[in-house]
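Practice problem 4.
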């Protein structure tokens, strides 16, 4: 058991009243940034410090408010960080230097598409509530000959659910229908409450099948293209997409009701005529009306997206090596779209790639492959349901070949891994033997530290950190709670490579009460102390002045606070920061100043079998306790202070770190049968 490192203070959060989120941005093992996502802004940290432009923090303006931050998902490609949120079009954060960053909305050429049907401009009024040969009248031009065979669906209002199949085209405003599901009344239905489902029903001919980027035409056998307002149609097809003969084209102009000019976005298999019902007219799948993807992750040189409002269980994969191209086609490197086959329509919460593509929904976990050791292509994609635990909308962790995800309740972390015994993926509960840690709390964020120790970090809803020493190959899954000063709380955690490049650095956003006010600070666990191996105070300022000093300044963030500090290895009495400085007497060269925290370990109750009985309910007296230590100072066992200074130690220096056994004599009887060890 090791005392955790203290935290080094880096900077105050821009807006003290709002919760930030920390996001890692790793360009390489030697170039790593920590990003502070806050209310409508991003700030940047590198090399254990805030990045400044002059004396001003580098800042990027965003549209993400405080409530959006923990719903963001991220995927990185070199110097570009792609960002998704279900309420915003995907964006990308581009790095040009430490101080120059650009946040842009991603323009997908082409974007993904879906067959929604015609969005009308006018109201529609039925001539009767039910029956055959009933007239439907639109207040504006909404119909053409190729709409015969399509259905009018009422999607809202008092007539929601009513359906009518178009039997005869009369005019641009009038069609004759057979009512399939009755209307409640014959009042007008608003434009937002009805639509023409599917695509025009007529033969379509693509003039050329390739190459991508070529301008060509698509011609219909019957009038079906709806043009601009000048042609009498208030909502037109320009900007929509036609999926035909396995390819994809974008409509750039409506030339007439039978012909459109298009640009080829995905190569088709042929330029032959496509019969009615074999081609589709589609609009952008991601929009303010349809929602935007909630999750993103790279896999097999594609970026994969999923979880929109309109298609919550659909995954989209970009064109291979072209992360802003979602043009569908028949070639192996064309974009891919696939809807999960499940009994329930549950939104995709996360996507992660390992040996297979894994996706977590609110109802279960899936894997996607291209068949037997083949990459995924438009013609071989296959997703299978593996487990049914359900996932929370919290970014999971990939640790080796394992994906660690948070369940829908946010109380359990499960280990999504392939099991050869059952020939399928399983998801055992990592908190099974520590369920008390989340019995009345939830987990809000996860992070993973690989070096120097393999640790899963989890922010708990009450502001404590959970740390799990995770060594799956050794069957070690060991949980502890990490707290800072009473009344203060952790709100976000993230991990990046240490500036030295040989280990990882854990960063935290902390809510603190300092000088009578609520503040939020950015700090990191510092495993490189000034005198000892690690820092031993929180929210700390450290300095090595090169010569002994009697005062240490720069403590504005701890003004009026009672602090503790270590000077040249010696623990000094607590004092209050006044005018941003403290007195150091006697003078010291290497100083660490911050807030005190106590590390407490408590053993489980021992059990010694005798006569088939149990010791659990009996009073116990410890005859002798021995504690084995490694490079340790400052220890209390069962309330007894363990001495470390020996007669031979110099009086003007701290005693050396001790390695060996210490014996503790404890008197009296007790009920708890537990040994408590503390360090301050």
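Answer key:
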């Amino acid at each position: 058991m090791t005392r955790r490192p203290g935290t080094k203070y880096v900077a105050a959060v821009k807006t003290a009243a709002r919760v930030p989120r920390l996001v890692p941005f790793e360009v390489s093992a030697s170039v790593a940034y920590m990003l502070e996502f806050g209310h409508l802004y991003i700030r940047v940290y590198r090399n254990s410090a805030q990045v400044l432009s002059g004396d001003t923090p580098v800042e990027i303006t965003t549209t993400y408010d405080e409530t959006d931050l923990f719903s963001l998902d991220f995927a990185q490609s070199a110097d570009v960080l792609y960002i998704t949120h279900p309420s915003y079009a995907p964006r990308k954060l581009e790095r040009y230097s430490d101080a120059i960053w650009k946040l842009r909305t991603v323009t997908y050429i082409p974007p993904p598409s879906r067959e929604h049907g015609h969005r009308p401009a006018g109201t529609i009024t039925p001539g009767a509530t039910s029956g055959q040969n009933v007239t439907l009248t639109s207040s504006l031009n909404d119909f053409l000959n190729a709409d015969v065979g399509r259905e009018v669906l009422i999607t809202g209002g008092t007539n929601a659910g009513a359906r009518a199949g178009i039997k005869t085209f009369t005019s641009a405003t009038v069609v004759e229908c057979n009512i399939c599901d009755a209307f409640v009344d014959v009042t007008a239905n608003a434009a937002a409450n009805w639509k023409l489902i599917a695509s025009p029903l007529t033969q379509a001919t693509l003039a050329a099948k390739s190459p991508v980027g070529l301008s060509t035409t698509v011609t219909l056998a019957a009038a079906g293209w709806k043009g601009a307002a000048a042609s009498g149609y208030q909502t037109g097809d320009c900007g929509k997409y036609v999926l035909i003969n396995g390819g994809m084209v974008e409509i750039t102009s409506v030339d007439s009701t039978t012909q459109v000019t298009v640009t080829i976005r995905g190569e088709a298999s042929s330029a032959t005529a496509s019969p009615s019902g074999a081609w589709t007219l589609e609009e952008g799948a991601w929009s303010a009306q349809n929602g935007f993807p909630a999750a993103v992750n790279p896999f097999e040189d594609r970026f994969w997206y999923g979880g929109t409002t309109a298609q919550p269980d659909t995954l989209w994969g970009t064109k291979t090596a072209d992360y802003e191209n979602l043009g569908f086609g028949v070639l192996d490197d064309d974009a891919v779209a696939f809807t999960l086959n499940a009994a329930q329509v549950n939104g995709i919460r996360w996507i992660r790639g390992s040996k297979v593509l894994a996706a977590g929904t609110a109802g279960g976990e899936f894997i996607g492959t291209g068949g037997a050791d083949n990459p995924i292509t438009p013609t071989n994609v296959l997703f299978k349901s593996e487990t049914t635990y359900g996932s929370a909308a919290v970014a999971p962790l990939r640790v080796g070949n394992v994906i660690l995800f948070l369940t829908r309740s946010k109380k359990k972390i499960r280990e999504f891994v392939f099991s050869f015994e059952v020939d399928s993926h399983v998801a055992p509960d990592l908190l099974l033997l520590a369920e008390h840690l989340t019995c009345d709390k939830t987990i809000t964020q996860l992070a993973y530290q690989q070096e120097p120790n393999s640790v899963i970090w989890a922010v708990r809803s009450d502001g404590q950190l959970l740390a799990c020493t995770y060594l799956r190959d050794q069957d070690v899954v060991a949980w502890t709670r990490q707290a800072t000063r009473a009344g203060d709380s952790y709100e976000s955690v993230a991990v990046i490579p240490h500036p030295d490049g040989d280990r990882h650095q854990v960063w935290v956003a902390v809510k603190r009460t300092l000088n009578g006010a609520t503040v939020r600070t950015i700090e990191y666990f510092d495993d490189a102390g000034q005198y000892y191996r690690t820092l031993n105070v929180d929210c700390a300022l450290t300095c090595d002045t090169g010569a002994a000093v009697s005062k240490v300044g720069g403590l504005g963030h701890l003004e009026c606070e009672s602090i503790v500090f270590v000077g040249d290895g010696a623990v000094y009495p607590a004092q209050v920061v006044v005018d941003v400085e403290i007195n150091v007497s006697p003078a010291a060269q290497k100083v660490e100043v911050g807030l005190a925290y106590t590390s407490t370990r408590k053993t489980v109750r021992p059990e010694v079998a005798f006569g088939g009985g149990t010791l659990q309910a009996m009073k116990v007296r410890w005859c002798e306790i021995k504690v084995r230590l490694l490079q340790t100072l400052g220890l209390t066992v069962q309330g007894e202070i363990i001495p470390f200074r020996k007669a031979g130690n110099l009086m003007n220096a701290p005693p050396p770190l001790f390695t060996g056994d210490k014996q503790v004599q404890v008197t009296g009887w007790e009920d708890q049968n537990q040994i408590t060890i503390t360090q301050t």
